[in-house]
Structures are given as C-alpha cells and as structure tokens.
Amino acid sequence: MIRSTNNQAATHVLDDLQRVSANLQRTQRKLSTGKEISQVEDNPVGAGRALFLRSEVSDVQQYQKNINEALGFQDASESAMSSVQDIMKRAKELVVQAGNGALDQSGLNNIAAEIKQLVEAAREAMNGTYAGRYLFSGTATLTKPFPGPGLTYAGDDNVMQRVIGQGEQVDLNLRGWEAFSVPPTTGGQNVLQLLDQIATDLQSGNRAALGNADLQGVDDMLDQLSAARAQVGARTNRLETQQTRLKDTELNVEDLLSKTEDADMAKAMVDFSMQQSIYQSALQSGARVLQPSLLDFLR
Amino acid sequence: MSVSTFNGINIAMRGLIAQQRALDTTTHNIANANTEGYTRQEAVLEAADPISNVSVWGMIFPGQMGQGVTVDSYRRIRDVFNDVQLRSAVSDQSALDVRYRELHAISLAIPEPSDNGLQALVQNFFNAWHDVSNNPESLAARQALAQAGQSLTGAFNHASTTFTQMRANDDTEIDADITDANSILQQISDLNGQIGQLVLAGAQLDPNTLQVVKPGQVPNDLLDRRDLLLDNLGKLANITSVTYDDQNRATVVVAGLTAVTPTGGATPITRAQIDAQFASGALSGGALQGLEDAYQNFLNEANATSYPAQLNTLAQALHDAVNAQHALGADLGGNAGGIFFDFSSATGPPGAAGRIMMSAAIMASPATIAAGATGQGPGSSTNANAMVALQDAVTTGGTTFLDYYNGLQSGLGTATQSTARSQDAQQIIVSGLSDRRNAASGVSLDEEMTNMIKFQHAYAAASRVLSAMDENLDRLINNTGRVGL
Known about the structure:
The complex is a heterodimer. Chain A has a domain at 53-257: CATH 1.20.1330.10. Chain A has 7 helices and 6 strands. Chain A has helices at 6-33, 44-99, 105-126, 176-180, 191-204, 207-261, 265-290; strands at residues 129-130, 133-134, 161-165, 168-171, 181-182, 189-190. Chain A has a two-stranded antiparallel ribbon with strand order 1-2. In chain A, strand 1 and strand 2 (133-134) form a beta hairpin. The model of chain A has no long low-confidence stretch (mean pLDDT 90). Chain B is of the alpha+beta class. Chain B folds into 2 domains: 7-77 and 444-479, no CATH class; 80-442, no CATH class. Chain B has helices at residues 7-31, 80-109, 118-134, 139-200, 220-236, 271-280, 286-298, 307-328, 352-355, 360-364, 382-389, 401-441, 445-479, and strands spanning 41-47, 51-54, 60-65, 69-76, 204-205, 212-214, 239-244, 250-254, 257-261, 265-266, 341-343, 356-358. The longest helix of chain B is centred in the middle third of the chain and has 62 residues, at 139-200. Chain B is rod-shaped and about 150 Å long. At the A-B interface, helix 1, helix 2 and strand 3 of A face helix 2, helix 3, helix 11, helix 12 and helix 13 of B.
C-alpha cells in the first residue's frame, strides 16, 4: 500500500495550483494582447511565418507609398504637357491666320508679339514642378530645364526610376527633349525654338515658311505632345494597376497575418472561464484536503 | 532455582520503558514533520532475551520464559535506490531550468514579434531608403534614413551588450556554484567523520578483517543531514556515484571528480576541473552544466552556432552589403559614396553586432548618402533603388537578411520551446520520484496519531499490570500468615 503523507498532499496542491494558474495567466495574456503568439517560443513555426508576413505587409505598404509619389509626378507632368498643348493649339490658329494672306506686316507683327507671349507661357509650363522639383530636367531636378532667356534645354539626359514592386521599377520622368522636341531627341527642335522660329518668320514676313514649314512644324509638335501624353498616360495606368494589385495583396497578407498571429478571442474567452473555474475548484478542494487530520477527531 | 517473585515487575518496567521510547520516536517524527530531508524513524521493538526456567530439581522444562520487550534500534525508513534516481532526475531538472532561463533571456534580448525588433528595424531601414529614392533631393528623407540606420545599429549593439553581460553573469554564477559545492563537500566530509565515530562506538568487529559487522550506533539524523547535502549537491552538478564503507562513511564522486573520501576528506573542485569535465561530457547535469552550456556554447561569440555569433554574421553581412552598394553611388554633391556603416573598432571583441555603428560622415551630413548614380543630378535615386533591392538579395550566409534572421529566431524559439517541454516532462519525473520518497520516508500525521494512541494504550496497560503486580505483592507481604487476626 502506498503511504500518503501530509507533505505530499501539500506539495501536490501547490504544484497543481501553480500549473493551473500558469495556464490561466497564459490565456489572460492572449486576451489582453489579442495575440496568439506573443513570443517566438509560443509557436516557432507560426512566429517565423508571422515575421515574413509582417515584412511583406510593410513592403507592400511602402510600394504603395512609392506609387502615390510617382502618380503625383505623372499628374503634374500630364498637366504641364496639357498646358503646352493648349499653347500650341493657339499657336496653330495664329499661324493659320497669318498664312491666309489677309494680314499686312503690322498684323503679322501683332501676331508675332502674341507668339512671343506664348513662348514665355510655354516656358513656364515646361519648367513645371512637383514638390519643388522640375519635372522635365532629367535627374537635374533642381535645375530649370528651360531657363530664360535662351531656348535650349539645360537639364540632363538621365531617367529617374521608382521601385513599385520587388525587382520592379518604372521610369518616372520624361526628359525635356523627350516631351517637347521634334524629333524627340537631344538634337530635336523644341517648342520654344519652334515658336521663336515662327515669331521670326512673322516679323520678316516670310509667308512661304509660315504656310508650309511652320504649319507643318506646329502639327508635328502637336502630334509629339499627344504621343508624350499618351506615354505618361500609359505609365499612370501601369502604376494604378499595380496599386490595385498591391491593395489586394495587402488585404490578403494582413488577413493571413491575423490568422497566424491573432488570438481567437471567442476560444480564448471560453478557455479563460474554464480555467478560472478549474482554478477555483483547485483552491477549494486544496483548502479542504489540507485542513483535517486525525488530530481533529481525537479528544 | 526458581524465577524471582519480582520478575513480573521487571517485565512491566521494560514494557513501560519501551512504549515510552516508541512514544518519544513518534514525538520526534511529529516535531520534524516539516523538516527538509527528514526521514521518519521508528523504534524497532524486540522481545527481550528470554530466560530458561530451571526447576529446583535440576530439570529443564521445555521452552523459555519471555522477559518482556526492549528497543533493539531506531530505524529510519528510506529507499536508497529511489534516492539515487531522484538525485539524478533533480540534476537534470536544474540543468534544464538554467537552460530555459538562459534561452528565454536571449529571446528577450532580441524580442520578436515586436514593433521594435530587429526585423522591424531592418524593414524601417530599407523603407527609409525607399523614401530617399522617392525624394533623393530631400535632406529630411536622408536625415530620416540616417536615424533609421542608427536605430538599427543601436539595436544590434544593445543585443550584443546584453549577451555579453549575460555571459559575464554566468561566469560569476559558475564560480559561486562551485564555491557552494565545495562548502557542501566539506560538510559531507565533516559528517563522514562524526558518522564513522558513532558507528564504531560499541560496534561488533570481524576479528580477522576488523571490519564493522554490526554498527554500534545508527546516527539517523546525521545520515539525514548528509543525504540532504547530497540532494543539494545534485542540484549543482550531477553525482556520478556515492559509495559507503563499513563505517558508513561516503565516497562522493561528483561530475566524474572524486571529491570526498572517508580518509582523504574533501578535495575542493576547481573552475578548471569543471570546465574540463564539461568539455569531456562528464559534467552532465545540475545547474553548473546548464551554466557551462550557456557560457561555452550558446552565449559564446567564438562559437559559430551561438546566438551572438549569428547576430554578428547578420551585422557583418548588413555592413558589407550596404557599404559595397553605397560605394557604387554618388552623393548629393556628385561625389562617390563613402562608407555607410562603420565599426567602432577594427576587430572584436565584441563582434560585428557589438561594434557596428553609422559612419560619422553620414551622421554629420546626410547629404553624403549616395542615393544617386555617378554623373547624374540630385534627382537620381539609382543607387537607392539598388540599395532597396538588397533586402531581397542573397547576402547573409547563402540567404537574405530576413531569412537568416528568421532562421535565428526559429532556432532560438524551437530550442526554448523544446526546453520548456523537457522541463515539464522532467517536472513530472521528479515529482513522481519525490512522491515515492515521501511515501516511504515522509511523516504522516495520521499514522503518528494512530501510533501515539497505540503506544499510549500499551503504556497504560503496562502500568495496570504493574498495579496488579503491586496488589499481589501487597497481599503476599502484608497479609500472608495473619489468619484470624
């Protein structure tokens, strides 16, 4: 027969109370933090997965931030190019008006004066900025691409890129000549040069040039601007598509992360009340087991 | 020759004395019910040597006449085999306890999942590079990157310092435990002396070998004290063997070292011996084993698989990869990139994690962060874009930063978790064995109460016999031959 001694009973009661109260504390921590995994040792595999998922959430959020920045830049470029296009449309009207032969030289001079105004308006649009940076200077973002009084491009020929996904980059900017020159190369004639040429032809009464080369030049420039705007539009599209995709990914990953890391509150609550009642019964039965001995029944 | 008329008084007296001693033993047990290491004792009652009843005619009647009771000895009730098992289980348990404590402390030094853990800080660092890529002209974004770099190196430094401190504490604790163990060994040796003397006093010796055949006295309480000391010694280091000589003096071999002998006394164990026994595997349990394991293995930077060494690998890889990429770029002024991370001293200790820091040039002027490509304008973020790609590049021990760090954390988490599980399992073994010890040796108050009543009644009965004897003698002495008076 196994003897049962008083110390044994006391040790058992204490051991059991400690175990039950440790369980209770663990569940309580789940409830108070809302996390299933509050340290790696709780679930090393799950915690490892959670680390990756957290990193992915952060990456995806950062890419979206990058995309928002890039979209802002595209919008600013688009609106600057749209202004230049409007200016060129007005220039075309003027060139057509000058070319129809109804105007004398003073009339041409008046038109030339308006064209000069258009040069400055175009310059202003082409020197457009986003968050204090010139849109069309290449990487020389702190240098005006078309500084007065000259007509030539002063930016550099580099393209800026933005990271919009893992290993995925998108070109950010159109260089000055890429947007505003025909042909779109460093040697092409830019909007300012074209307008200046037109003004010169107007002042010198060169109707032949006005009717042919200049009109053709304006048309080509309008085509070029449309093409450049389409390029920006395509980039914007790509950015927006990527953004939508990233938003979906973010939701999915966050959902996964929550499933990995977050406590099932309903289950934790049920566990908690169960463990609480176990703890209470352990306390009660412990108190009753420890108290009496034969001593209590001897006279 | 006939039996004395007064024989019965003698027998009754023996009964009184024996019950009294048994009652005393019960009292002793009750008094020591909560004494650590106490073993319950019992008075071994034995019928006293009988006498032959010789008749006046010289005829020997069959049988002998009982002469009551004597206390043969006081016995402690102990299962020695269980003791050996329990000590070994407790040794393993203390080693596991220390191991868990250390691993848990390590995981607190590099806490995950956490918003301030290394994973989050590495992530923030690369996100800051993204922000610089978005705004390469902005000094604010560069300043933020420099700060993110500093937070990251700070976290590395902090973890490294914590590891170094933990290891230094373990070092001190090993020395303290050895001092404790030596004090215990000295006490065991002292008890050996006292026990030997008591066993020898009045002992029956074998005439040829002079070995003790029947001990003179059994010093139960001293034996208990020695057993308790052995229990405590087992918590510090594994007890390889304990053997006893004929005088019940113990020879103690601890962690493979013969530390106490009956004649040679205690030989203090040294730190060098403990280190050597750990290396050879002879130190296989007890707190010292756990501490040595932490000190020599998983907190030891020099050990490539230790946690500080893994952290060093990570810091070194980050330093190398970021600096190599940084040198390829150009800063805001168009100058080629300098170093991004620096080391506070050229070589360790501490290792890379303890020494990594931001380069002073970058902290002084964030414009020197090489975000762009050589020969491009301030809007160039080519190098920053290449830098963020490092996050997913194979840079650290054949894998990415995150993979490597994740491996470190999973390894640590798994080790901690499995230690906690072993600890639970060991707890069950220890409590089972200690239940068995308690069942054999522990004091049960119910039992003592029962015995108390038993002995009390026997004592009362013996007194009553004495009274009856007294009445008989009174009749015989005072009333015999007074017929008719």
